[in-house]
Specification:
This protein folds into 2 domains: about 60 residues; about 300 residues, Methylamine Dehydrogenase, Chain H (7 Propeller), CATH 2.130.10. Helices cover about 20% and strands about 40% of the residues. The chain has 2 helices and 29 strands.
């Protein structure tokens, strides 16, 4: 605002003249800035157009990104759907039977289930749903009449096999119904049963400090008879038919012998490696399989005092399983994928090997000379000459057992 109050007349005249020459020094009327305004508007419009173009470019970029994301999502969804369909198809295929001649009671411990295998495939499967955790089955023994004991590692749902936090052994009747379960603080890798159906359980398959390692005996009702502490990780167990002698071996190159009351008779830690499997023949001779992982397998006869009394090397591969038939012949399962499984005399003389071309997890001989083998993707039956008779396909068998005759 401008004001001329209290100014003198002469000053006012001078000011009028100056204003006439220079134009108004201050005015309440707005100045005509239409040209500047139009120019500014044009500049703003151009700027807005540039922004709109930029936004259009961003929109196109976003559309491309969204299309890529949607395509990836759709591909993932389609892949999952296809995988589920393929898995269902594969599961149906894996459960097919190919001319297998099963007249014996054969039980197979898969990771998730214990199943009885018959001439038409699976007769029944058992999961151990009564437990609070998943039981990853590792070992099975079948007794006369068709009942069986199954043991393994306790895994929380969603955990990996390396996260073992417990273990259990369960008795299942010949129809696949659970009779009882006993739980432990650690996992179980092997089982043995005597003629009284007492069950021998080496506990501590996952420990590194051996705090929970033990060898325990339970009766056929699941009642504990005794437990003996171990200072190593047990891997394998064998018992004489009358239960008078029990052998347990495992890591730290150790084998121990216990009597029928759970009293330790001796322990030896001077072997050539850690026992991976063991078997007692009907004559009472103990054979122990050494060589796990990438080590070459060896089988040694161990006498009643724990001394090696003869060893023989196998053709290669790590030891996974060792068993014997009523004649005292030995059967081996190896990680070797060329000649596997094999049958040997008790002096190590090779009788036959089959080119199975798969890792053999477990072997179970039958009195008539045939053999059942739990391999990577199937249960395979071999005749007395080592020729394949047939198979039941399914991934993941861990152990196999046949009922005694």
């Amino acid at each position: 605002m401008c004001s001329g109050r209290y100014w003198s007349r002469s000053v006012l005249v001078v000011l009028i003249n100056i204003v006439a020459l220079a134009g108004p020094a201050c005015s309440d009327a707005p100045e005509d800035n239409s040209a500047n305004y139009n120019n500014a508007n044009n500049a703003n419009i151009n700027s807005n157009n540039a922004n709109i173009n930029s936004n259009n470019a961003n929109t196109n970029s976003n559309n491309e990104t969204n299309n890529e994301t949607n395509n990836e999502t759709n591909n993932e969804t389609n892949n999952e759907t296809n995988n589920e369909t393929n898995n269902e198809t594969n599961n149906e295929t894996n459960n097919q039977t190919n001319d297998v001649d099963i007249t014996d009671t054969v039980h197979v411990a898969y990771v998730e289930e214990l199943c009885e295998v018959g001439p038409d495939g699976f007769e029944w499967c058992y999961e151990a749903d009564s437990l609070d955790h998943e039981l990853w089955k590792q070992a099975v023994v079948v007794v006369e009449g068709g009942s069986s004991y199954v043991g393994g590692d306790g895994i929380e749902p969603g955990s990996s096999i390396t996260e073992v936090d417990s273990g259990a052994v369960c008795r299942v009747d010949d129809s696949g119904d659970e009779e009882w379960c006993v739980e432990f603080a650690d996992g179980v890798d092997d089982l043995a049963v005597d003629s009284n159906e007492d069950i021998y359980v080496p506990i501590g398959a996952s420990v590194s400090d051996f705090d929970d390692s033990a060898l325990c005996r339970f009766d056929d009702q699941g009642d504990e008879q005794w437990c003996a502490d171990l200072d190593f990780r047990p891997r394998a167990v064998a018992v004489t038919p009358d239960g008078s002698d029990v052998y347990v071996g495992g890591y730290l190159d150790t084998i121990c012998r216990f009597d029928d009351q759970g009293e330790q008779q001796w322990c030896n830690s001077d072997y050539r490696g850690s026992p991976q499997a063991m078997t007692l023949t009907d004559a009472g001779e103990l054979f122990v399989g050494f060589g796990g992982g990438f080590s070459d397998a060896e089988v040694c006869r161990v006498d009643e005092q724990g001394d090696e009394s003869g060893c023989f090397e196998l053709h290669g591969g790590g030891m996974t399983s060792l068993n014997s038939d009523t004649d005292g012949d030995l059967y081996t399962g190896l990680t070797d994928e060329e000649d596997n499984p094999c049958k040997l005399a008790d002096d190590g003389e090779l009788i036959w090997c089959n080119s199975g071309e798969r890792t053999v997890e477990s072997v179970a001989p039958v009195a008539n000379g045939t053999l059942f083998s739990a391999e990577e993707a199937a249960v395979v039956q071999y005749d007395e000459n080592g020729d394949k008779i047939g198979q039941v396909q399914r991934l993941g068998p861990m152990d196999i057992a046949v009922a005694p005759e």
